[in-house]
Amino acid sequence: MPLPTGCSVNTNTSDESEDTEVLLEKDDVPPQCCSARLNLAILMFFGFSVVYGLRVNLSVAMVAMVNTTDPAAEKNTTVVPACPLPPGAENTSKVLQQPDGTPQYPWDSETQGWLLGSFFFGYLFTQIPGGYLAGHYGGKFFLGLGVFGTALLTLLTPLAAGWGVYWLFALRALEGFGEGVTFPAMMAMWARWAPPLERSRLITLSGSGASFGAFLALPLTGYICEKLGWPAVFYLCGGAGCLWFVFWCALVSNDPRTHRRISEEEKEYIVNSIGAQGKGHGWSLPLLSMLLSVPLWTIIVTQMCSNWSYYTLLTSLPTYMNNILHFDLKSNGFLSALPYLGSLPTSLLSGVAADWLIGKKVFSITNVRKIFTFTGLMLPAVFLTAVCYSGCSHILTVTFLTLSTSLGGTSSAGVFINQIDIAPQYAGFLLGITNTFGTIPGVVAPIVAGYFTEDHTLAGWRKVFWVAAGINMGGAVIYTIFGSGEIQSWAVVEEEEEEEER
Questions:
Q1: Looking at residue 245, what is its pLDDT?
Q2: What DSSP string runs through 246-262?
């Protein structure tokens, strides 16, 4: 079903015709229910659930892996509690009872910080190459292999921990190396699969699997540690990733043109609405133009700011719940996961709302991205600041942390999908660039948190939350001033190429 005058929705946003002729009528759009594009989003959702389960399981398992009664660790762990211990806990051992023969290790706070950040050392290196290759060849292979390879390495975690800290650090870095291609590959696939007026909801649905994975993995990790011992966590998570890979290989295609079960109606709708932007880019890229692009640098800086608070909570929240609020491991896992349960519906609803605002022309794409980015960074910063003053109140602390992470989910319809707005054909490569910079907080934030909290005091944790809140606010201001949702001139596909593609 060709669009009027042979144009696609991916017209350069500077053209006035974009808002007049190119939007599809509602009756022309094949339903999403049971569609190939929705099935792809659901498979991605579960894929990223696995990905984040593999990523965060160490955060909770670390509590069970560390032997706090070891003499070598005593100097770092025997401190006056920052908050009162629960009634009856004063005379009980802090050590988690696990099945006989389960090993534990004398890792101090600094060592734990390095181990929690080790994943991101490897994660840095494959983002850009993964996005480039996925944009050229398609993302199915890279996304699938990224999850599968990480799952296989996760199965080796107990063995590496037994060999020593350096082996575990190297293994987690290798896991990050394999997983680094997943998000750029996802964006490269959606550049070929997502109709422009459905981008926000499809991409936020697939990406929200990360929140669901964190929500599911954190309490399950605590439960498994208590019942089966911490090594079982890594065996079960790794097995889940291998199982997902089987379904991915059987049901997914790089492009709607080559999908075996897609209807002709849906295929024509996707191909014609995306137009020439829905094909892979060549080997050459407009690197100089990208380097000088203000909207791209705005995305980079904003994602770095947002990820600082996200990764701080993702890696350090279980430690805070254990050392400061003294929750048992099962409660720790559930309460650490609660914020991510809140962000799941927020992300999904923000994606639907963003598409509705764009489709109804209530706001431009640029203003929609700015609205959702500002609320997704500024409101979480406000509640992180409130955590600093909640003291030892379990209810207030958990409430503020939950509200902070939940409201942060709105940014998923903002800056985190902005690459596909400014350069659809290069979206995978651009996401690789922005995620590379966005991963730097994942390396630094746990180390900084470990440095601030060596003495396990409330004052140290206040510094952690203050820094995260301040960086979030800075990102909100920067994106509001410099952000853009328009296709950049260096990313416009020539009319001749579009006609040839048709």
A1: 94
A2: HHHHHH--SSGGG-SS-
What single DSSP character describes residue 327? -
Are 172 and 55 in contact by the 8 Å Cβ rule? The answer is no
Hey, which residues does 66 pair with through a beta bridge? 105
CA dist 501 and 7 (Å) reads 12
For the chain, 502 residues long, the average pLDDT of each consecutive 10-residue run is 39 39 50 77 92 81 71 47 60 55 78 80 84 82 91 91 90 89 87 84 88 82 81 90 92 84 84 68 78 92 91 76 69 72 87 89 91 93 87 82 88 88 85 87 81 78 89 94 88 56 54
Whether the Cβ atoms of residue 60 and residue 332 lie closer than 8 Å to each other: yes
pLDDT of residue 424: 84
Burial status of residue 360 (CB atoms within 10 A of its CB: 0-12, 13-18, 19 or more): exposed
Residue 268 burial (C-beta neighbours within 10 Å; 0-12, 13-18, 19+): middle
Instruction: Return all residues near 396 (Cβ < 8 A) that are at least 6 apart.
Output: 386, 390
Residue 282: name the closest of 13, 497, 433, 432 by CA: 497
Show the tokens assigned to 87: 């009634």
Give the DSSP per-residue string, 156-215. THHHHHHH-HHHHHHHHHHHHHHHTTHHHHHHHHHHHH--GGGHHHHHHHHHTHHHHHHH
DSSP string, 87-146: TT-TTS--SPP--TT---B---HHHHHHHHHHHHHHHTTSHHHHHHHHHHH-SHHHHHHH
Backbone angles phi and psi of 99, in degrees to 5: -55, 150
| Nearest alpha-carbon partner for 59 in 316, 330, 338, 237 | 316
Q: Sign (positive/negative) of CA torsion 156, 111, 383, 438? A: negative
d(CA 468, CA 337): 19
Both structure tokens of 112: 């734990």
Distance in angstroms (rounded) separating the CA atoms of residues 336 and 318: 6
Encode 142-160: b = buried (16+ Cβ within 10 Å), e = exposed: bbbbbbbbbbebbbbbbeb
| pLDDT (0 to 100) of residue 80 | 59
Q: How remote is the C-alpha of 175 from its chain's centroid? A: 15
- Is-contact 203 415, C-beta < 8 A? no
| DSSP type of residue 66 | B
Q: Burial of 232 by CB count in 10 Å (0-12 exposed, 13-18 middle, 19+ buried)? A: middle
